[in-house]
Amino acid sequence: MPRSRKWAQSLDIRATLDEASNPAGLRAGEQQGLLVGGLAVGDGALGLWKALAEVFPDTHEQRCWVHNTANVLDSMPKSAQPGAKKAIQDICNAEDRDHAEAAITTFAQLYGAKFPKAVKKITDDQDQLPAFYNFPAGHWIHLRSTNPIESTFSTVRLRTEVTRGAGSRTAALAMVFKLVESAQQRWRAVNAPHLVALVRSGARFERGQLVERPKAVAA
């Protein structure tokens, strides 16, 4: 598999949040060669985070900016949404993490008094939302959101609606697997693929630039 290509490593069905928090699925994937490291991207309500911490404790968490933005704007009146959306974009499209955290402070100052619940949706995840800034700048576009997964599952949902369900759990998993396997051929290639191995080996990045190689790699 070319280093610049993305591909599905593992697929499982979790019907409830309790099931999603069960690490058994991740452990089974690990036994089958699932590689998880660096950064995992998801929304803020997934039981996956609990399971991930147990099976892959060194993996950092990144909250999806698309989900977060929608949640923040839903907590505000429509008249305030355009300005708030621009302020949120100033955070997730900042030059680096320092500028992003400064933009979070600005957002809180602008909207905290009137819309505290909306602001808390950002400040409560202040460690996870800018996590992608600690990785190569070329990878940031891939790490800000779960859009690559969401766009793939839109195809799955469409097929499920046409077939009016997939029957059994096993049949559903088989159908989704084949659809994802086909969709991955069209996924956008990874920017700066030569840096993926460094990320996985624990290299440290600041402001999107490599500042420290792992000793094993440097040697």
Describe this structure in words.
With 219 residues, the protein is mostly helical. It has 12 helices and 4 strands. It has helices spanning 17-20, 24-31, 48-55, 65-74, 81-92, 97-111, 116-123, 140-143, 147-163, 169-183, 196-200, 215-218, and strands spanning 39-42, 60-63, 204-206, 209-212. A two-stranded parallel sheet has the order 1-2. The chain has a two-stranded antiparallel sheet with strand order 3-4. A hairpin with a 2-residue loop joins strand 3 and strand 4 (209-212). Helix 4 runs antiparallel to helix 5 (81-92), helix 4 packs antiparallel against helix 7 (116-123) and helix 9 (147-163) crosses helix 10. The longest helix has 17 residues, at 147-163. The protein starts with 16 loop residues before the first helix and ends with a helix. The relative contact order is 0.14.
